[in-house]
Design a protein that fits this description.
3 domains, 14 strands, alpha/beta, Rossmann fold, binds zinc ion, 16 helices, five-stranded parallel beta sheet
């Protein structure tokens, strides 16, 4: 019996064989990877997991390692105790999981891209695409280059060229869509259906999201039995927080964890906080917003996995926080000064949320607080900087599928 039972609808439970499909034919709910947990349970023991779990993504856990190629070289990022910053913020035990040290493009997106890319060749695609504001573009372009696969990136209007320089160097074709992220994302998913491309966070999304889980395994392995704990992560689309929760719940189901599960804390920029607002209203109705934040990596107004992020916060006894850009900016500077770590604005937002968490409820200070720093960066990422616009580096296109397809066929096909 295979340990993978296929793709399962998160809403109605319908099972499908593995394919480049991400929406249920019965109810249009999202699909996710599903496993035969009994089969896995009989083949692993806690000791084995602890031995492999903290070191790298590939050795972390059968549900990941069985189908993730063994040569990925992703994960295993530093988990560091931040004594100085903890003291500054009044957090007794502050730990940082620094995804800014991720290989090869310095953000946690290396993980999700690595896991989805294993399916690109298996399903026979020759072109891979995504909509991105920076990190995902770099991660995808780098891995596509190393596999010899054509890579197309859709960036929103006014994107910062400095943030996608790795993608440009890796030979990706960059289109600057005359719209915001949500518009660029829409065009990308229309292209997927029209031109039959692999879209890393579209038709390959179930495999993409699975790449987050080893991050949860690594953190839980580092924590050992230190509880109660809380894990703070920034939220853009909501997939990161929801998949950390899935990873933790699976470990629990397989009896790999003892004691209380950690509380998951979601953090958004105040100017783009639809998930936090819904959570505050105790509602699962997420009202899309027009993002107004300089932190591009989490400027998503219509978060596709927001509802599952809310579920993760609710089920784990967590909280949500909305943080102004200026506060995040100050925190990024403070982190660099006190700990010598340069993180992006999203990491600043998560650190601010950790600080707010302890102010709001001292009970969270009884255990370790783990903050996810999702990428490398610095406070200048948050300042108004027009020097790095995509001009001349990207081809400007309208957010219109028929004109795009015509242009593509004429110039690139
Ligand atoms: Zn369904």
């Amino acid at each position: 019996m295979s340990i993978i039972s296929g793709l399962r609808c998160k809403v109605c439970g319908q099972l499908y064989e593995e394919s480049p499909q991400y929406i249920c034919e019965e109810c249009f709910g999202p699909l996710e990877m599903h496993y035969n947990y009994a089969e896995i349970s009989s083949s692993i023991q806690k000791g084995q997991f602890n031995e492999a779990g903290g070191k790298s993504q590939r050795g972390a856990f059968p549900p990941a390692s069985q189908w993730i190629n063994q040569d990925l070289r992703v994960g295993g990022t530093p988990f560091v105790r931040a004594h100085g910053l903890g003291k500054f913020l009044g957090i007794n035990k502050l730990y940082l999981k620094d995804e800014g040290a991720s290989y090869p493009t310095l953000s946690f997106k290396d993980r999700v891209v690595a896991s989805a890319m294993t399916k690109v060749t298996e399903f026979g695609f020759d072109t891979v695409a995504c909509a991105s504001t920076g990190n995902l573009a770099n991660a995808l372009a780098a891995r596509a280059a190393s596999r010899g696969i054509k890579c197309v990136i859709f960036v929103p209007q006014g994107s910062d060229y400095n943030k996608i320089s790795h993608a440009v160097s890796s030979g990706a074709i960059i289109f600057e869509v005359q719209s915001n992220y949500d518009g660029a994302n829409r065009l990308c998913s229309e292209v997927q259906d029209t031109l039959g491309w692999a879209v890393i966070n579209g038709n390959l999304k179930p495999y993409y999201l699975e790449g987050v889980k080893p991050l949860a395994y690594e953190i839980m392995n580092e924590l050992k039995d230190e509880r109660p704990a809380s894990i703070v992560a920034p939220m853009g689309g909501g997939g990161l927080l929801s998949m950390i929760w899935k990873g933790i719940c699976e470990m629990k189901e397989l009896n790999l964890l003892d004691g209380e599960l950690p509380a998951l804390i979601g953090a958004q920029a105040s100017g783009s906080a639809p998930i936090v607002h819904a959570w505050q209203n105790n509602s699962d109705d997420i009202i899309p917003v027009k993002p107004d934040t300089k932190i591009a990596s989490i400027a998503i107004g219509d978060p596709p996995d927001g509802i599952y992020a809310i579920e993760a916060m609710q089920q784990s006894g967590g909280k949500g926080f909305a943080i102004p850009d200026e506060e995040a900016n100050k925190m990024v500077k403070l982190l660099a000064k006190v700990e010598g770590i340069a993180t992006g604005g999203a990491g600043g937002v998560a650190l601010c949320a950790a600080s707010e968490l302890i102010k709001a409820d001292k009970a969270y200070n009884e255990g370790p607080v783990i903050v996810l720093l999702t990428d490398r960066g610095n406070s200048s990422d948050l300042s108004a900087n027009t020097a790095g616009k995509t001009e001349d580096k990207a081809i400007k296109v309208e957010a219109n599928i028929s004109t795009f397809v015509e242009m593509w066929k004429q110039n690139y096909a």
